[in-house]
Design brief:
Helices cover 33% and strands 17% of the residues. The chain has helices at residues 6-16, 45-50, 69-80, 102-111, 116-120, 133-146; strands at residues 32-37, 58-62, 86-92, 155-161, 168-172. The longest helix is centred in the C-terminal third of the chain and has 14 residues, at 133-146. Its cofactor is Zn(2+).
């Protein structure tokens, strides 16, 4: 039997003190989609660095801001169902996906009780490790721009954010 973790209990307790208010009139027609990493250090930093707030953008996050089929599908939904006309891939410096340690991951899998057969067939490649953060962003831009689901009229840009300062470095700007 699993016990409810202290993390979720803390979240629910904090939510009791949340200032509830009706936000249904919030402007919610973003034309921007951001594809970025799930790194917790980006929370609040990314929004401040980009000058955006709640309701200003659709945000797609995954480990290493990898543009895979799922991200392309989500971007297509953002374009066709939600009216997005601009996509920015934002990678970051010091990304953990650039330094994955297969031995450490396998050790952790064993600690958490993953079956030995699964571990024997495991390859770090299934996690899509990132070789170079900047090249990963450029590859993501190329993948989006070459996808038949992303029309040429959609601007696709690539940036990298310094995780320590918030400074943005343009890697690819889609200029008409």
């Amino acid at each position: 039997m699993r016990f409810v973790s202290m993390i979720i209990k803390d979240i629910l307790r904090e939510n009791q003190d949340f200032r509830f208010r009706d936000l249904s009139d919030l402007k919610h027609s973003p034309k921007l989609c951001i594809i970025t990493c799930m790194d917790s250090r980006l929370i609040d930093l990314l929004e401040r660095a980009l000058g955006i707030g709640r309701g200003d953008a659709k945000v797609i996050k995954n480990a290493g801001n990898i543009v895979d089929d799922g991200v392309i599908r989500s971007a297509a939904v953002a374009i066709y169902a939600l009216g997005v006309n601009e996509i920015i891939i934002v990678g970051h410096t010091d990304c953990g996906m650039a330094r994955l340690d297969e031995d450490l991951i396998v050790s952790r899998m064993r600690e958490l009780g993953v079956e030995e057969e699964v571990i024997e067939n495991f390859s770090i490649d299934v996690l899509n490790p990132v070789g170079d953060e900047e090249e990963n962003v450029i590859e993501g831009v190329k993948r989006l721009k070459s996808s038949p689901l992303i029309p040429e009229s959609i601007g696709v840009h690539g940036l990298i954010i310094d995780i320590n300062t918030g400074r943005l470095k343009p890697l690819y700007l889609d200029e008409d």
